[in-house]
Predict the structure of tRNA-dihydrouridine synthase.
Amino acid sequence: MPESNSYSLAPLQGFTDFVFRSCYHRVFGDIQAYYIPYISFGPGNKIRNSQLRDLLPENNMDIPVIPQILCSNAEEMHRLAEIVKNYGYTKLNLNMGCPYPMATNRGRGSALLENRDELKQIFDHLFSNFQFEVSLKFRAGMTDENSIFELIPILKDYPFSKLIFHPRTADQLYKGSANRELYARFVQEINLPIVYNGDLNTPADLEQIRQLNPTQSEWMLGRGILSDPFLIRKIDHRLPEIQQQRELKREFHDSIFEEYQRQFSDQGQVLMKMKAFWSYFANSFSNPSKAFKPVKKASSLAKFKTNYPEIFHNFEL
């Protein structure tokens, strides 16, 4: 059995932005690495301002972050990696796991797993021209989960710092379940330490994976943390008393709300961000659908400010 767990936060577009990361790190501080949601080229070969703002070093001070890029070829990779390098970062994560058609239809994310020649060109160029500590986040292929085993010789040819595997195919999106048996087989065949990602929502989920791979100690958490900010403390048997849980939970929420109000002058944008936050955060209350309802129904930021304190008062953890 591993002596201790190591946790990282998955890069979830629209959810784990720098506001979430900084507030979680300040209030809980349980995570060893925060992966910044990807930057990529959009219309006109431009990167969205929101993606660049999320990457800015001044928005990630004193937090152990790792930028992520989403590309379709070596040329795109080079331009994105240059941006990351020019911001002073020394670590880089390649996204080869994004399952959404808006990415895969352009040869990005999981689609790259099917394009072995392009994959090798990207890896060759990256390791030859940059000095990053490079990690790779990937799925089990587009449609055939067993195709991932064909990639093992390629992956073993390059000095990746970490391999982060989400054992779902792209066509599953987030439906069904991550295939833990597939993950265990992959770990056994590649014979390298792998970070597990996918459907980690309870301590029991980690234990089930450990039954298949007893040495597993590195975990990437995503929606599980959004739904339960105490998840890591539950896993590590460090859950505080109920009153302290209430205080930390309220502090976490209020710090996020205050920071969004500082970042955005548009109240509608603040409300949209808080509704997105609550779409997961409501799961940490005793009746998630009822807890989320007052937030979902809030038609203005003023109404949200009136509604959310009642949720903390009326619903148990």
Remarks:
- The chain has two domains: 6-235, 242-314.
- The longest helix spans residues 242-263.
- The chain has a mean pLDDT of 97.
- The CA atoms of residues 85 and 253 lie 33 Å apart.
